[in-house]
Write a structure and sequence with these properties.
The chain is an all-alpha fold. Helix content is 80%, strand content 0%. The chain has 15 helices and no strands. Helix 1 runs antiparallel to helix 8 and helix 7 packs antiparallel against helix 11. The protein is globular, with a radius of gyration of 21 Å. The termini are far apart. 51% of the residues are buried.
Length: 408
């Protein structure tokens, strides 16, 4: 007998193992999560002008959130595999909404606001890994690769939505309004999620499962690190690229940069259709090809001459980086460890964010030297190394499977 879930989808029907209502709900709420973190980027100019925070304090706030968020991914993944997405995702939405409101209310006390914004990282970490674990339970294997590899379009859509809506809110109501708006949206969304979602998990007595999941996941961790460096660099530095390389005004550069996430969503969904099955190492071959194309696109930016060519190549590179990130962060955890997806997603998320943090000083130094060609060649080399690593992993895995068959 079917039970209805969010968005009117079926939660449990014997003839239909893909729970579309839950999948759509998960995609939507994860896009909403970004209103509680990317809004900080939108608010940065106002935090200086309206709240009197200098660059050092703004940087400390960003770093506090980044490190707490990254370090929370793994323990949240462990919890998610045990208790499911219902409680964690709902709590994360409500908690992040409250932290946004408390942050702006305590902004005059920097130490307190730093603690609160860092704590927001804990609640934000309750989004991706539990939903990734749940998606594996909500889809049937037939066509699962297409759905899961496309799911990363949610964080790209969330970024685009927050930049567009957040900019309007700040312009109309000031910097405080963008944090209050996050609370107004996220808290009811979290309550609705908790009421509407049913995500039961069968308890497992396999004590070695988490250890085995970690061992399998580490084999494909380096590509996640490499993509983190590219993803963060493009988010942070694309507006400056148009200003410094193509002599565009700041406002126009912002408009050009804002178009990138919209283009990336289409690319993620289109490339996701290329992946059908999500289990076993076969999807790694196609993933390596996508990362290889991504590296080539990044290298092309260094050869672009003129605004039109620059926009086209950066748009292509951004779209492919988004698609590659979606494949590695969404599909590879299920491919390497279908029984511990949330835990492995937490590991990959940690590597992705640490890669972004590690690559930022290198990219910043190159930008400071006005070596923009070097920036994109560095990012291309990083992603290409990730593609080569995947090929090596695939060859090793296939040889191991062959040895096991011969051992029988």
């Amino acid at each position: 007998m079917a039970r209805s879930g969010p968005s009117g989808g079926s939660i449990s029907t014997p003839g239909n193992d893909t729970r579309w209502g839950l999948i759509v709900a998960g995609w939507s709420v994860y896009a909403l999560y970004y209103m509680g973190r990317v809004n900080f980027s939108v608010a940065v100019p106002g935090l200086g002008e309206e709240q009197g925070l200098d660059a050092i304090r703004i940087g400390a706030l960003a770093a506090g959130f980044f490190w707490v968020y990254s370090l929370s991914a793994l323990p949240v993944g462990i919890l998610a595999d045990r208790i499911g997405a219902r409680l964690l995702v709902g709590l994360g939405l409500v908690g992040s909404g409250l932290m946004n409101v408390l942050f702006i209310l305590t902004i005059e006390n920097f130490v307190l606001s730093l603690v609160i914004w860092s704590a927001n990282g804990i609640f934000q970490a309750m989004g991706w890994t539990p939903i990734m674990g749940a998606i594996g339970r909500w889809v049937s294997e037939k066509g699962a690769g297409r759905i899961i590899s496309s799911f990363g379009s949610s964080f790209v859509a969330g970024t685009a939505l927050t930049f567009a809506l957040g900019g309007f809110i700040v312009e109309q109501g000031g910097v405080a309004a963008v944090f209050m708006a996050a609370g107004i949206v996220l808290i009811p969304a979290g309550v609705a999620w908790w009421i509407g979602v049913r995500d039961p998990i069968q308890p497992s007595s396999d004590a070695n499962r988490p250890r085995a999941s970690i061992a399998r996941a580490l084999g494909l961790l380096p590509p996640a690190v490499a993509l983190g460096a590219a993803f963060v660099a493009l988010v942070v530095w694309t507006p400056a690229y148009f200003v410094e390389v193509h002599n565009q005004a700041v406002g126009r550069s912002g408009l050009l940069s804002a178009a990138m996430p919209a283009i990336a969503i289409g690319a993620i969904l289109a490339i996701g259709r290329w992946f059908r099955y999500s289990r076993g190492p076969g999807a790694a071959q196609r993933g390596a090809l996508v990362l290889g194309a991504t590296a080539a696109a990044l290298a092309m930016v260094s050869q672009a001459s003129g605004l039109l060519a620059g926009f086209a190549t950066v748009a292509l590179a951004t779209a492919l980086v988004g698609a590659s990130s979606s494949i590695v962060l969404s599909l590879f955890p299920r491919m390497t460890s279908p029984t511990g997806v949330a835990l492995v997603s937490g590991i990959y998320s940690l590597g992705f964010n640490l890669g972004g943090g590690a690559g930022s000083p290198i990219v910043g130094r190159l930008v400071d030297q006005d070596a923009w060609d070097g920036v994109f060649l560095f990012l291309a080399g990083s992603v290409l190394a990730g593609a080569i690593w995947i090929i090596g992993w695939y060859i090793w895995t296939r040889s191991r499977l062959h040895e096991l068959r011969l051992g029988r």
